[in-house]
User: Fold these one by one.
Assistant:
Number 1:
Amino acid sequence: MENLPPEGMDLEIPQHVKRTLWTVWADYFATGEGRTISACIVYAHDEESALSEFKRIVDGGDFYVLGAYAQRGVIENDFTRFVFSNNVFEFCNKENEKANISVSGQFYFNFS
């Protein structure tokens, strides 16, 4: 087949091109009576593309991204554990680089 690379050619994807899992989260509160915690775990090239994915897939992401944090890897912290179950973390860690993964969630409450 003419589309195959030459024999012995390294097919490894360069690190600067390879996407890895990133976790992005935001904790928003204004008046003290309500709170919105948003999070996603997505494949991205870097922090900027992870934040762009957050904006795209999280409800209200255009606004919440202004206070969002992004970190490479599947991150379990007080905010992400509030949104995702242990099963989500286990699956993402186990299937990393085996499946295309995009997980998002949001928790909202308001007492007013």
Number 2:
Amino acid sequence: MDQKYLFHQPASTRTRATDPPESVDGAVTATASAALMRGRVLLVADSTPRTANELAQRAVAEFGGIGDSYRKRAMELGRDGTLQKCERRICHVTGSNAGTFKRKES
């Protein structure tokens, strides 16, 4: 083991002091990627309530990528209050009953 990593303070809270440098670098990249995807979800969100899957579908159409990743970021934004939670309804993508989110009015 390389001793300098024993007490290393990682750039991301997703790593441990004992993680190899490749893992630390990967966590930093993953954190940056998730932040970019959250930003893209915010760009496609508007005043119309949409489910996480509907927001993901719009983000994929606009920016490309994997819908499931955008869906997860939409759920995170709803949990942390960045997107406003709205009523539940049938999702146009999955056909399931789901909560909806919209951009907060400023």
